Amino acid sequence: MRYKQVIVVRKDLGMSCGKLAVQVAHASLEAAEIVRRRMPDVYRMWREEGAKKVVVQVGSEEELMEVYREALERDLPAVLIRDAGLTELEPGTPSAVGIGPHEGERIDRVTGRLRLYR
Question: Which of 20, 80, 87, 95 is most open to solvent, judged by the fewest CB atoms within 10 Å of its CB?
């Protein structure tokens, strides 16, 4: 597969499984929507290949922001998710970053060192 999307999630927040799922979904949908509008050919090819998604972890807000900045610096479509604060997290807490879909090789330059979320 050539295209993928990577969702980076903060492990240090100790989110419940349900909260984690919602943050990942927000990041995935918002990042995909950016690509659908700005790079429709990339979006279409990603979908045709099966819409691969990978969830990885970081241990702090600082690490999350570093990944987000690096993705933007490398001209990758990326979105930062800040929680609304209605349930488990304080309002405005950065919880996840969605990167892509885009060429997997390019995304791996930013996220390849990160561990899969466990």
Answer: 87
Burial class (CB in 10 A: 0-12, 13-18, 19+), 39: middle
Contacts of 110 (CB under 8 A, 6+ apart): 6, 67, 70, 71, 74, 76, 99
- Domain at 3-111: CATH code: 3.40.1490.10
pTM: 0.96
Q: What is the pLDDT of residues 80-106, one digit of tens each?
A: 999 998 899 999 999 999 999 999 999
Q: What are the residue boundaries of the structural domains of the chain, listed by start?
A: 3-111
